[in-house]
Amino acid sequence: MLLTLGFFSILGCSTTTQTSATAPDSTKCQVILGGTNTSFAASGGTGSINVSAARECSWTATSSASWISINGSTSGQGDGSVGYSVAVNQVPSPRSGALNVASAAVQLSQAGAPCAFTLGRVRDSVTAAGGSLSVGVSTLTGCAWSATSSDPWIAVTAGQSGNASGTVTLSVAPNGGDARVGHATIAGQAFTVTQSATGAPPTNPPPTNPPPTDPNPPPTKVHLDGTVRFLVGSCPNLQFVVNGTVVVTDGSTDYRKKPSCEDMRSGVSVSVDGVREGLAVRAQSIEIKGGGDNGDHD
User: How far, in Å, are 24, 36, 169, 263, 264 from residue 236 at the CA level?
Assistant: First the structure.
């Protein structure tokens, strides 16, 4: 018997499945931004931006200006929010910047510091012979002012205008008649000049034997109660106005009942004790009594 053996081979078939992951396309990952406050006063403040995005879409937040800083994390995924702070604007010019989140942006604007002007004094007197008077003007750099005379016998001979603190010089002509009063307008404020009549004695004749003056007179102590206005600067060096008086602080200022000057805001009620230095009062101690907001209302 002849046996025939046959061989069969069964070839197995294998199937390979490949899965690839791709990032969401840019069309799907559109970001929508919304904020509650995009305009700030010169005193600065804080705000937040609401971010709306698909759950799988990641994003990064950046600031276009050094005076806008991001608080907390600068990145996220899906819906979220970005907090930010706006620094004090210490110049009179307004400014603008942007917060960018992915391909979207929110524009922020900030007002310039208010221009306040202080004169060294608001009145003076001269004899019938006339003479020259100098008046100091204190303000922020960038604040424009001018000086004009309302009377022909008073002339502005120097400091007719300025764009920062400066000095105005008035020339008063000799008086050949009765006593008279004139005016000049300096930085929007009235300056009064009184001139004595011909032959009149000096307004304040010096004593025959004037007493010796103290070479080191004690500083004049000043107490102020009121509301903080036009706050500029950064801790510990601040400048603000209380009841029309410019107040400055430094590292030696004591904040009673509060840990530091970080609690100072425009609009808060304060009690200030200090000493007069030229046109300003240097605060030795400050008590913050309450109130305050993120902007001036004057």
Answer: 49, 30, 35, 11, 10
Token readout for 283 is: 């605060």
Q: In what order do the strands lie in the sheet with 166-172?
A: 118-119, 131-138, 166-172, 154-158
For the entire predicted model, the pTM comes to 0.48
pLDDT tens, N- to C-terminus, the chain (298 residues): 333 334 333 334 344 444 344 455 556 788 888 876 789 999 999 999 999 999 999 999 999 999 999 998 999 999 999 999 999 998 899 999 999 998 889 999 999 989 889 999 999 999 999 999 999 999 988 899 999 999 999 999 999 999 999 999 999 999 988 899 999 999 999 999 999 998 756 556 556 666 666 566 678 898 999 998 888 888 888 888 988 888 988 888 888 876 678 888 888 888 899 998 877 888 889 888 877 665 444 4
For the record, the structure tokens of 257 come out as: 């009942």
Gap between the Cα atoms of 242 and 268, Å rounded: 10
Residues in the chain, total:
298
Asked if 170 contacts 155 with a C-beta cutoff of 8 angstroms, the reply is yes
Cα 291 to Cα 156, 195, 269, distances in angstroms: 44, 47, 6
DSSP state of 42: T
User: Number of C-alpha atoms within 13 angstroms, CB side, residue 278?
Assistant: 9
- Residue 282 and residue 250 in contact, taking contact as beta carbons nearer than 8 Å: yes
Six-digit token string for 264: 């100072």
Residue 195's beta-bridge partner residues? 126, 180
